[in-house]
Write a structure and sequence with these properties.
The complex is a heterotrimer of chains A (248), B (301) and C (349).
Chain A: E1 4-15, E2 18-29, E3 33-37, H1 44-51, E4 59-64, E5 67-68, H2 74-80, E6 82-84, H3 97-102, H4 121-133, H5 149-162, E7 167-171, H6 179-195, E8 199-203, H7 207-213, E9 216-221, E10 224-229, H8 231-235, H9 238-247
Parallel strand pairs in A: 3-8, 3-9, 6-7, 7-8
Antiparallel strand pairs in A: 1-2, 1-4, 4-5, 9-10
Chain B: H1 2-10, H2 12-43, H3 50-68, H4 75-98, H5 103-125, E1 138-141, E2 146-149, H6 150-172, H7 174-184, H8 186-191, H9 196-221, H10 229-243, H11 248-269, H12 274-295
Antiparallel strand pairs in B: 1-2
Chain C: H1 3-21, H2 26-46, H3 57-73, H4 78-83, H5 94-123, H6 128-148, H7 172-196, H8 199-209, H9 211-216, H10 221-247, H11 252-256, H12 259-273, H13 279-298, H14 303-317, H15 321-329
Helix pairs in contact in C: 1-7, 2-7, 2-10, 2-12, 2-13, 3-5, 3-6, 3-10, 5-10, 7-10, 8-10, 12-13, 12-15, 13-14, 13-15
Classes of the chains: A alpha/beta (248), B mainly alpha (301), C mainly alpha (349).
Bound molecules: adenosine-5'-diphosphate and magnesium ion.
The site of adenosine-5'-diphosphate has 11 residues of chain A, from strand 2 and helix 1.
């Protein structure tokens, strides 16, 4: 296994009395698709928030390509090449899809000088081809806020790709999406991983999806790491089965 | 400024006197601020016209005292009642249309009402600075080195009575419970059968009544003129952001604190900069709190 | 020649000829361009970036004082000048007047931008209504500070030197300042139009639509917000000086830091025309200004009451503005449509 791109060690996070994450350690190898599962409220989103700098963590270290990032802020971490999508899906509602894509261009080497320049034609081309990739080409001049929830999720995914991240953290990419479209999403995630070389770290509630997608899966319950392993192994793990059954 | 600063130490009586004056004024500020917190908490509206409602209360007292010759103190409840109906009217004409809108819309709408009221008061009562003569004296201590204005003390007592009444009303009465339920969760309250429109109307009217009483006290203890309202709005806002919504004790402490801070500031930097001090203090507190929050990567919400 | 060039050409010609044809209305026409500049620069934050400022008037007032202080200060001691308000000694010759105006406007722009940059990151860290009320407080506070500052005449204001007779060959004071406001508004319009189409413009819109998302995507939001405020501050500060000289008297609360008139009108004009568009503020300002002049002519004494009523009516019944209404009615005219054409080949990643 190659070097970990993201190395989470002993991370804890509490909100008042609620311990959302307790002593969590996870490795995401470069080029992999790694899964994160667990019942509702088990602390998956909180862990993502901690990793991308959304809130300070109480204990532990988070290393991205060997660099400690737990003291950095959200935009700084994003510019290093680690991006996340939101469980509730967030897009720029009053802008059309192309503009949503254009402003998602990488901001790494933006300076005071080029901030007032226009987008080069290549940017528009890339935006359009990525919109085609997720099947939104014909909708590209509609306001993003007018798209359906599923389409917004696809747009958010395309925006993330536009940003050319090294690693992408996806928070429930298939939640609320029409089941007939789910296979298409799995396919696109795999292609993004294989063709664009983006490492994926995916929270997923749908067991069938994550078993299909990930090479290695971590399972959280009540804020703690319960088990981890390849999908086949985890499928038969009694702890994981109990956690899921107990939650329902 | 330096001289005045030194004076505070050389003559402790001056420092004490300033503190007392400030606290007595602060009590009235706290009253208006509590009304603002009520409207903010229940209706999610920042009522920019708050200050004009205070000033209008003052003019009601002035007019009644001048026309009928009764003592201004007796006009406090009358001002409150009249303002209750004015507040109810403002709600029915404008506010109910913006209650569920974006907060920016209601800020602008109440800003518009505040401009209307300013100009109407200017037309009707004139632009002069006015105050009501109560004929009260002062008590002197330490050979009159420290004086205690009687009307200030009386107004403090009135504020305490009103505050107690308000807290009891919100805790005990049926309407008070409906108001608190709406503040918690308007949709849930509606489902439970609370007529939220009526609750909003009453809350807004109640706030206007509170402002009316506060204004009545202001005109007796201090001065009013038609364009002084915004300063009271900002004072109320300042007190609320320091104390938080729905916290009567906090509002009173913050109000007294603001009164004292203002009094010291105008002693030190000059009375002409008093209003500037209040406004800048608000800006500084907002930014300061936001910076503290940003250490936890949050912001003022 | 395309349509928009004809449109701009006609507006340009009208702008140049208007004060000559309607020579009695030069001041009102000059104010029209100032109002357009107000609405345009307010919309950079309020409409494009979603930060509803009630304090942009701060930069206008600051510019007005700085410009007048420089113009007076090049010849007299400002303190002595203001103390001797109204004396004949306050006259400048043509050269002094123009040099003072040019240097004054330059200094005003520098000070305006510097103040915006300095307080920007703090104030613009506030969001929503906290930002709105914070800026409101800031604008009023500055007015009060100048109203207490004896050096610049405190509450009784400052009278800039009168327009020298020897400069009458320029067409007189009113015409001279008319063209200054015309030029400033036109430059502001094209500058903003240009930057709204750039990366910067989209970044503003992204902050407006979802600032947390913009940060999560790596945008330098603090920098973008501050620059946006600096741009508005630049134009507002430039416009302040000429207005003080056109009116001939600077009252700290009524002319310079006029929060309850100019300060709130900016907001209203942009809303009336349509927030977040380039033409909305222009149209809103034009309609508002004409209405306002009518109020002054027919409702004297009550014009501000009418103004307050107008504010309430606009925000309660027309919060999306003219452009917003047009867009809601004919979205496809604004380019919002499904495009069934096939994407170009060979553009794939
Ligand atoms: N900002 C917050 N403040 C307080 N509690 C929170 C916050 N975010 C999450 N929590 C709590 O932390 C726990 C884990 O939530 P979350 O990470 O969203 O779970 P998941 O994504 O696995 O469903 C829950 O009990 C939730 O209520
Ligand atoms: Mg979650």
């Amino acid at each position: 296994m190659s070097t970990p791109m993201l190395e989470i060690t002993g991370v804890s996070k509490a909100f008042g009395g609620v311990i959302a994450n307790e002593d969590i350690s996870i490795n995401v190898p470069e080029g992999s698709i790694t899964g994160l599962i667990g019942p509702n409220g088990s602390g998956k989103t909180t862990l993502f928030n901690s990793v991308v700098g959304y809130h300070p963590i109480d204990a532990g270290t988070i290393k991205f390509e060997g660099q400690e990032i737990s003291k950095l802020r959200v935009p700084e971490i994003a510019r290093l090449g680690m991006l996340r999508t939101f469980q509730q899906t967030r897009i720029y509602g009053e802008m059309d899809c192309v503009k949503n894509m254009l402003i998602s261009m990488p901001h790494r080497d933006e300076s005071l000088m080029n901030i007032f320049t226009n987008f080069p034609p290549e940017a528009t081309e890339k935006a359009e081809s990525l919109l085609e990739f997720v099947g939104l080409f014909s909708k590209r001049y509609l306001l993003a806020g007018e798209l359906s929830f599923g389409q917004q999720k696809l747009l958010e995914f395309a925006m993330a790709l536009m940003n050319e991240p090294k690693i992408l953290l996806l928070d429930e990419p298939t939640a609320g999406i029409n089941p007939t479209l789910i296979n298409g999403i799995i396919d696109r995630l795999k292609r993004a991983n294989e063709q664009l070389g983006i490492t994926l770290f995916v929270i997923e509630h749908n067991m069938r999806v994550i078993m299909n997608l990930a090479e290695h899966i971590y399972c959280l319950a009540h804020g703690q790491l319960l088990a981890d392993g390849p999908p086949e192994e985890l499928q038969d793990n009694q702890l994981v089965i109990d956690a899921y059954l107990g939650a329902h | 400024m330096i001289d005045n600063f030194l004076l505070l130490f050389q003559a402790p009586t001056v420092a004490v006197q300033t503190l007392i004056d400030g606290i007595l004024i602060g009590a009235i500020l706290a009253l208006a601020a509590y009304g603002m917190a009520l409207v903010w908490g229940v209706m999610n509206i920042i009522n920019i016209v708050q200050g004009e409602l205070v000033i209008l209360g003052g003019y009601i007292t002035l007019t009644l005292a001048n026309m009928t010759g009764i003592h201004p103190l007796w006009t406090v409840p009358i001002a409150a009642v009249v303002m209750y109906f004015i507040g109810y009217g403002i709600y029915k004409i404008v506010i109910h249309r913006v209650v569920d809108e974006d907060m920016f819309i209601s800020i602008l709408a109440t800003f518009g009402i505040s401009i209307i009221l300013q100009q109407l008061m200017d037309q009707v009562f004139g632009a002069d600075i006015q105050s009501a003569d109560t004929g009260f004296d002062s008590w002197g201590y330490l050979d009159d080195a420290i004086t205690l204005s009687q009307i200030h003390v009386i107004s403090l007592v009135i504020v305490i009575v009103l505050a107690t009444f308000l807290v009891l009303y919100l805790k005990r009465s049926k309407m008070g419970r409906a108001i608190r339920a709406t503040a918690q969760d308007a949709r849930a309250a509606r489902i439970m059968g609370v007529d939220t429109d009526h609750v909003y109307a009453t809350t807004y009217a109640l706030n206007a009544a509170i402002c009316g009483a506060a204004g009545s006290l202001v005109v007796m203890t201090w001065i009013i003129h038609p364009f002084l309202g915004l300063a009271y709005t900002v004072r109320s806002f300042l007190i609320v952001i320091v104390a938080g919504l729905g916290n009567m004790v906090g509002v009173i402490i913050a109000g007294l604190g603001l009164g004292a801070a203002e009094q010291y500031a105008s002693f030190l930097i000059g009375i002409e900069f008093r209003v500037a001090f209040v406004f800048l203090l608000m800006v500084v507190i907002l930014i300061w709190r936001n910076i503290l929050l940003s250490k936890e990567r949050r912001y003022l919400k | 020649m395309n349509n928009s060039m004809i449109k701009y050409g006609l507006i340009g010609i009208a702008g140049i000829l208007a004060p000559i044809v309607f020579a009695n209305f030069q001041v009102q026409l000059g104010f029209l361009w100032l109002m357009i500049l107000f609405a345009l620069t307010w919309d950079t934050q309020g409409g494009q970036m979603g930060y509803n400022s009630f304090g942009n008037i701060l930069f206008f007032g600051l510019g007005m004082y700085v410009c007048a202080m420089v113009q007076v200060g090049l010849v007299y001691d400002v303190g002595v000048y203001t103390a001797a308000a109204g004396l004949d000694s306050g006259k400048l010759n043509g050269e002094q007047y123009l040099t003072g105006l040019a240097l004054g406007m330059g200094a005003a722009a520098v000070v305006g931008v510097a103040v915006a940059a300095l307080i920007g990151s703090g104030i613009l860290g506030l969001r929503g209504h906290y930002f709105a009320i914070g800026t409101l407080g800031l604008g009023i506070a500055f007015g009060e500070i100048f109203a207490g500052w004896d050096y610049v005449g405190a509450g009784s204001g400052l009278a800039p030197p009168p327009f020298p007779d020897e400069l009458d060959f320029l067409g007189g004071r009113n015409l001279f300042f008319y063209y200054i406001f015309f030029a400033l508004a036109v430059i502001a319009f094209f500058t903003l139009k240009k930057i709204y189409a750039s990366r910067f413009g989209l970044a503003l819109n992204a902050i407006r639509d979802d600032e947390d998302k913009a940060e999560a995507m790596g945008l330098r939001t603090v920098r973008i917000k501050t620059i946006s405020w600096c741009v508005s501050a630049f134009f507002l500060a430039l416009a302040g000086g000429p207005l003080g000289m056109l009116v001939g008297f600077i009252d700290p609360r009524e002319t310079a830091f006029a929060g309850v008139t100019f300060g709130i009108w900016m907001v209203l004009m942009a809303i009336l025309g349509g927030k977040g568009t380039i033409w909305g503020p222009v149209i809103g300002a034009a309609i508002f200004h004409v209405t306002q002049e009518f109020f002054w002519s027919f409702l004297l004494g009550w014009q501000r009451v009418a103004m307050g009523v107008l504010i309430v009516v606009i925000v309660v019944f027309f919060p999306r503005g003219i452009m917003g209404w047009l867009r809601d009615t004919w979205p496809d005219r604004f380019g919002e449509k499904v495009d069934e054409s096939v994407p170009q080949e060979g553009a794939a990643q």
